[in-house]
Design a protein that fits this description.
- Strand 3 and strand 4 form a beta hairpin.
- With about 170 residues, the chain is of the alpha+beta class.
- It folds into two domains: about 100 residues, no CATH class; about 60 residues, 2-Layer Sandwich (CRO Repressor), CATH 3.30.240.
- A four-stranded antiparallel sheet has the order 2-1-3-4.
- The N and C termini lie far apart (about 80 Å).
Amino acid sequence: MESMLFDGWTALARTVVIGVLAYAALVVVLRITGKRTLSKMNAFDFVVTVALGSTLATILLSKDVSLAQGVAALAVLVGLQFVITWSSVRARWVRRLVTGEPSLLAYKGECLQEALRRERVTEDEVLAAARAAGLPRLESTDAVILETDGTFSVVRRSADLAGTMSGMPRG
């Protein structure tokens, strides 16, 4: 029972030292790969983030994994993400495979029921997105789009948009 609560100062010191070093290594690897690694997440980015967290936890807590192995694992995960994102910028089929496509959920103030079912989104969520965009009702929208990162984009009706742009000529 005692070992479940405290294994000794050596194990505790190892966790602290390896934790600090592994964390520093992860920050360095993420900085080298650029801002895209930490951008808004699509499904692929989310999986990589969870895998990075799991790997960091394994490095911290498993005596069977050396710091060098752990840093290599972190570098492989971030490297794979870099290769995939680099490829997705250059090849549309890779981008579609990894991130999917945005989905039109509402058009001209009307919810598209089939799209809502396919994306597992409720009308209430679409209405909440419209309200968050400052629109009191769905009829004030031209479109509500579910983006690949899970956020909603709301496009105001053209007439509403023109009316809100002070100083802009209408035409």
